[in-house]
Amino acid sequence: MGIFIIKGILIGLIFGMPAGAVGAMTAQRTMNYGMKAGLITGLGSSAADCLYACIGACGLTFISDFLLRHQSIIHLGGGCLILGMGISMLTIKNARPQN
Predict the structure, then answer these.
(1) Residue 30 burial class via C-beta count within 10 angstroms: exposed 0-12, middle 13-18, buried 19 and up
(2) Is residue 32 predicted with pLDDT exceeding 70?
(3) What is the Cα–Cα distance from 94 to 53, expressed in whole angstroms?
(4) Rounded CA gap, 68 and 8, in Å?
(5) CA angle 20–24–30, rounded 5-degree value
(6) Residue 14 confidence (pLDDT)
(7) What is the DSSP letter of 94?
(8) 8 Å CB contact between 64 and 40
(9) pLDDT value at position 22?
């Protein structure tokens, strides 16, 4: 039973270790300045990631609401754009390749 707990802790530590530049910076600061500096660096990184996730979630909700609110105008504009592209292709002399 005890061996499973130790294995579980090791697996959790391995998968919980941050990868990338921020993880390397956290490890470097821990080795150079001690555990307190590494912990503060890791907590700052986690707080920034949490803030970015909240901004992303709110931003996606805002964009989704905007698109749903103006759906008919967007459809009308897209239809006009496609119609204009089709008309311009029909009016160009060299629209069809010559063999």
Answers:
(1) middle
(2) yes
(3) 50
(4) 46
(5) 150
(6) 76
(7) G
(8) no
(9) 82
Residue pair 41/29 in contact (Cβ under 8 Å)? The answer is: yes
- What are the residue ranges of helices labelled H in the chain? 2-16, 21-33, 35-69, 71-91
Q: Could you give the dihedral angle defined by the CA atoms of residues 42, 27, 29 and 36, in that order, rounded to the nearest 10 degrees? A: 50
pLDDT class for 83, splitting at 50, 70, 90? very high
Asked if the model's pLDDT at residue 96 lies above 80, the reply is no
Q: 45 and 18 in contact (C-beta within 8 Å)?
A: yes
pLDDT tens for each residue of 36-73: 998 899 888 888 888 888 888 887 788 888 889 999 99
Q: Which residue carries 């002399």 as its tokens? A: 93
Query: 72 is written with which tokens?
Result: 């008919």
Long-range pairs for 4-11: beta carbons < 8 A, 24 or more residues apart: none
Residue at token pair 């119609």: 83
Which amino acid does the sequence have at 93?
A: K
